[in-house]
């Protein structure tokens, strides 16, 4: 899962309790306990009734991989978070099944992954399986010989791969030069800007967003009223300086801005979407709320983890955030009663779709010089099975989804998923539609990505400037960002072409894209 | 720099005078090396470590600055001076550059004057609790900058932060001040925290310097009827001058390296208002994933080298000033 960086220490200080990482360690520990107790209290996803029943949770079959017979330590590094809840018990169960194998699981913050993996590759000590460092394109890892294809590693690869939905494996994302290097461990279909709110504060103010979705006007009025109720002890809306652009994108998207959020490209025209009128309207809404005094003071200097950790301390009534808060907040404050609702839209009860790209998430790669690739293949084989995928969803409390509809259905039939997790799932289903991916259209696009220079100031910077009052001409700032972004992409395309890539800006245009529908393989075929 | 180093600087003038003769190891260079072999042997670990972790990275930064390179590919394209050309046209670089020097221009004099005053007070042997106060002032220096930064975000917070509670409680401000979220106050707030955090090390430098002032000067001046201010004006300050030059250099240097505290408190925001040069370099070299695109280690190296040259020029000016001050001191000592 690609998540903004976490600072457990700040969460700990803010909450005066567990940090996010401590929480996950604790939950992971609980997962280990459950995993090790094996045949005890677990859920049978096949049961029709929603109740726990005895079943082996991590029933790892023999995949046929030729595993080492001597004592070995297999190293796995990723960002932990929700997937650790699945991986930790899986690895302990795997060690039980193969006593000669120790899995050294390094659940690490992204900063550490970004440093350790490139250094490890250079000196030959990289973990056997690792998450991609954020700032290294996959193509670079492949060109530089960092990672090995998984086609030869996972036993009976073609059968294994065929069980995934169509288009789950994407050229330019998972497949390079006809070899598969990674796979979608979980789905990227998770809505990251749900309205999560303090039930008591909103009820006191006369609002119930779960049953009566808020319009933008309601949202502003609710925040103002809650702030008045709070009288300096709590506020209407929690924002943070790092996440402003995401909130603006989400608000603009549900208001109908095509392509807002994500890569910020309107796939209909292939141009950047920063100047869509809804983007400015979203900024104006937030500025109005700021002038009302409804936003948590000091939000511009807050990080996303700080902002998130303060919600269970009940210092603000509403925040836009994703399902990862659902298991975390009750551990910070068990009495915290929060709701999970659709984001506010200009007209209550109607939302334009939010588009996402189904690249999968939580991908990991196998180190090219690993001596124990067969262990990676064995583990991947299980993780990419129906049981493995179902268990990922169950272990995360439904806060991670699978690309396999059947795995999601099986998990949903259990009573492990909370109402909030189910609500988050429903919101994602209701709002999110798959957008086209230029990488699917042409794997040559990767060469353009390698030529892209960072565009600064970014939308995140500009959002800070607008909210802090440093930028007062929103139209001009957004137009400037669009112009710079267009030129940057044009330059990257030109540079890639100069190096022989068969690319043009036309690849970014999908005339048959309908934002209200999933973009299907047939639609790619129609373009040809 | 240790107190002994400072003392050496202070003695610079007299060493130049007495060191004109040739020592016992005179002769060929080789004979001198052989006769001083143990000195070189003891220097070797330091030379090796310095070479590996200071000089090699420095040289490689210059090398990388001539390439378009992301930092993780084998392929590097030579671009000559293109990175430097782009840099001098980058307004964000110059803004960050300006902020770093504003930091120095404001924070260094405040640190120097405050720490000198405290050092003079604590140098008074009649003050029984001097070691306690010295420790008290030095504690922030040894506290991790990132921790100080995070704690200070809570201290300065407009939501129930103690500073704002004090200000509003005393009626000094009508409503809490968003020190770190307001672009007009953010840089000053970070500066204040940096001055507080690093104040102790400058104080220690001054204390070391003060302890080199021969007591007989004070005693003789007192016999001649000099008061406290005259002692300060005619003895302490002239004797401290050569130290002052080097302390200014060290303080300015440390004030240019405030990455950790800025990153922990504001990450350069809001909207670049606290983006000093080190944060700019970091964000260009390593945080490109957060702004889209591929990291630009070559370009960031160019920014680092350019900045390094400017700092070096300032340092050279200060070394020149230190020598001049040392000459003044030696004249004072011999006079």
Question: What's the CATH superfamily of chain B, by name?
Answer: MetI-like
CATH 2nd-level architecture of the largest domain in chain A: 3-Layer(aba) Sandwich
Residue-averaged pLDDT of chain A, rounded?
87
Distance between the termini of chain A: 32 Å
The fraction of residues assigned to DSSP E strands of chain A is 5-15%
Specify the overall morphology of chain B.
flat
Low-confidence stretches of chain A: 1-56
- Report Rg of chain B: 24 Å
Share in helix of chain B? over 70%
Describe the main β-sheet of chain B briefly.
Answer: 2 strands, antiparallel
Account of the 3D structure:
The complex is a heterodimer of chains A (528) and B (335). By secondary structure, chain A is an alpha/beta fold. Chain A is built from 21 helices and 15 strands. In chain A, the strands form five sheets. In chain A, strands 2-1-3-14-4 form a five-stranded mixed sheet, sandwiched between helices. Chain A has a four-stranded mixed sheet with strand order 8-11-7-12. In chain A, β9 and β10 form a beta hairpin. In chain A, α2 runs parallel beside α3, α3 crosses α14 and α14 packs across α15. Chain B has 16 helices and two strands. In chain B, β1 and β2 form a beta hairpin. Chain B starts with a helix and ends with a helix. The chains are: A alpha/beta (528), B mainly alpha (335). Chains A and B meet through α1 and α19 of A and α8 and α15 of B.
Question: Any chance you could write out the topology, listing elements then pairs?
Answer:
The complex is a heterodimer of chains A (528) and B (335).
Chain A: H1 8-15, H2 20-37, E1 72-78, H3 81-97, E2 101-107, H4 110-123, E3 129-131, H5 138-143, E4 147-148, H6 157-162, E5 175-176, E6 179-180, E7 194-198, H7 199-205, H8 216-230, E8 235-238, H9 244-254, E9 265-266, E10 271-272, H10 277-292, H11 304-310, E11 316-321, H12 325-332, E12 338-341, E13 354-356, E14 364-367, H13 373-383, H14 386-395, H15 405-412, H16 419-431, E15 432-434, H17 438-441, H18 445-449, H19 459-468, H20 474-498, H21 521-527
Parallel strand pairs in A: 1-2, 1-3, 8-11, 13-15
Antiparallel strand pairs in A: 3-14, 4-14, 5-6, 7-11, 7-12, 9-10
Chain B: H1 3-10, H2 12-18, H3 29-35, H4 37-64, E1 67-68, E2 77-78, H5 82-88, H6 91-122, H7 130-142, H8 145-155, H9 162-169, H10 186-210, H11 215-223, H12 228-255, H13 259-265, H14 277-285, H15 288-291, H16 297-334
Antiparallel strand pairs in B: 1-2
Helix pairs in contact in B: 1-10, 1-12, 4-16, 5-16, 6-10, 6-12, 6-14, 7-10, 8-13, 10-12, 12-16, 14-16
């Amino acid at each position: 899962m690609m998540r903004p960086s976490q600072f457990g220490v700040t969460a700990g200080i803010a909450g005066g309790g567990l940090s996010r990482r401590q929480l996950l360690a604790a939950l992971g520990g609980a997962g280990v306990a459950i995993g090790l107790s094996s045949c005890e209290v677990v859920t049978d996803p096949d049961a029709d009734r929603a109740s726990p029943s005895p079943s082996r949770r991590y029933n790892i079959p023999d995949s046929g991989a030729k595993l080492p017979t001597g004592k070995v330590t297999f190293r796995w590094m990723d960002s932990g978070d929700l997937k650790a809840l699945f991986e930790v018990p899986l690895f302990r169960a795997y060690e039980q099944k193969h006593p000669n194998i120790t899995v050294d699981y390094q659940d690490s913050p992204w900063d550490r992954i970004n440093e350790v993996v490139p250094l490890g590759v250079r000196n030959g000590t990289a973990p056997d399986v690792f998450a991609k460092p954020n700032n290294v394109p996959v193509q670079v890892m492949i060109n530089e010989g960092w990672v090995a294809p998984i086609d030869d590693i996972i036993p009976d690869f073609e059968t294994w791969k065929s069980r995934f939905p169509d288009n789950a494996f994407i050229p330019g994302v998972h497949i390079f030069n006809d070899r598969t290097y990674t796979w979608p461990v979980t789905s990227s279909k998770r809505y990251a800007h749900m309205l999560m709110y303090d039930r008591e504060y909103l009820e006191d103010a006369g609002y119930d967003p779960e049953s009566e979705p808020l319009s933008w006007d309601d949202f502003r009025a609710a925040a103002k009223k809650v702030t008045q109720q709070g009288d300096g002890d709590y506020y209407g809306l929690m924002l943070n300086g790092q996440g402003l652009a995401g909130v603006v994108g989400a608000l603009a998207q549900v208001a109908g801005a095509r392509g807002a959020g994500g890569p910020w490209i309107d796939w209909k025209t292939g141009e950047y979407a920063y100047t869509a009128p809804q983007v400015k309207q979203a900024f104006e809404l937030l500025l109005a709320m700021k002038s009302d005094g409804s936003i948590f003071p000091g939000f511009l200097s807050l990080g996303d983890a700080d902002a998130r950790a303060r919600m269970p301390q009940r210092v603000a009534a509403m925040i836009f955030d994703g399902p990862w808060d659902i298991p975390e907040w009750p551990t910070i404050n068990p009495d915290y009663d929060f709701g999970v609702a659709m984001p506010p839209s200009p007209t209550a009860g109607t939302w334009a779709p939010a588009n996402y790209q189904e690249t999968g998430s939580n991908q990991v790669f196998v180190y090219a010089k690993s001596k124990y690739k067969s262990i990676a293949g064995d583990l991947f084989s299980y993780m990419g099975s129906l049981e493995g995928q179902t268990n990922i969803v169950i272990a995360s409390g439904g806060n991670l989804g699978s690309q396999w509809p059947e795995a999601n259905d099986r998990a949903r039939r259990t009573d492990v998923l909370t109402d909030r997790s189910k609500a988050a799932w429903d919101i994602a289903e209701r709002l999110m539609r798959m957008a086209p991916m230029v990488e699917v259209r042409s794997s040559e696009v990767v060469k353009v990505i390698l030529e892209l220079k960072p565009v600064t100031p970014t939308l995140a910077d500009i959002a800070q400037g607008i909210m802090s009052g440093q930028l007062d001409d929103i139209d001009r700032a957004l137009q400037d960002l669009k112009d710079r972004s267009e030129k940057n992409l044009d330059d990257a395309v030109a540079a890639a072409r100069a190096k022989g890539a068969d690319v043009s800006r036309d690849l970014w245009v999908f005339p048959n894209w309908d934002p209200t529908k999933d973009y299907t393989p047939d639609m790619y075929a129609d373009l040809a | 720099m240790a107190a002994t180093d400072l003392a050496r600087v202070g003695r610079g003038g007299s060493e130049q005078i007495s060191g004109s003769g040739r020592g016992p190891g005179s002769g060929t260079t080789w004979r001198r090396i052989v006769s001083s072999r143990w000195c070189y042997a003891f220097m070797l670990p330091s030379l090796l470590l310095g070479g590996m972790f200071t000089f090699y990275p420095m040289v490689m930064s210059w090398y990388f600055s001539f390439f378009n390179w992301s930092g993780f590919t084998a392929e590097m394209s030579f671009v000559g001076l293109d990175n430097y050309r782009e840099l001098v046209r980058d307004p964000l670089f110059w803004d960050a550059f300006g902020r770093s020097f504003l930091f120095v221009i404001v924070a260094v004099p405040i640190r120097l004057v405050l720490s000198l005053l405290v050092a003079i007070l604590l140098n008074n042997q009649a003050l029984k609790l001097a070691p306690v106060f010295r420790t008290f002032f030095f504690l922030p220096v040894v506290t991790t900058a990132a921790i100080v930064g995070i704690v200070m975000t809570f201290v300065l917070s407009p939501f129930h932060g103690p500073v704002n509670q004090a200000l509003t409680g005393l009626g000094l401000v009508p409503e809490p001040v968003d020190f770190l979220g307001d672009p007009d106050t953010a840089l000053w707030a970070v500066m204040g925290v940096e001055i507080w955090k690093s104040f102790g090390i400058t104080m220690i430098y001054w204390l070391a310097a003060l302890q080199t002032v021969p007591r007989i000067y004070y005693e003789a001046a007192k016999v001649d009827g000099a008061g406290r201010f005259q002692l300060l004006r005619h003895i302490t300050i002239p004797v401290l001058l050569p130290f002052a030059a080097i302390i200014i250099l060290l303080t300015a240097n440390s004030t240019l390296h405030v990455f950790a505290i800025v990153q922990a408190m504001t990450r350069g925001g809001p909207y670049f208002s606290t983006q000093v040069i080190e944060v700019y370099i970091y964000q260009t070299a390593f945080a490109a994933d957060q702004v889209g695109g591929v990291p630009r280690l070559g370009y960031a190296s160019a920014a680092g080298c350019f900045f390094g040259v400017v700092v070096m020029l300032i340092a050279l000016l200060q070394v020149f000033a230190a020598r001049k001050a040392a000459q003044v001191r030696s004249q004072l000592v011999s006079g």
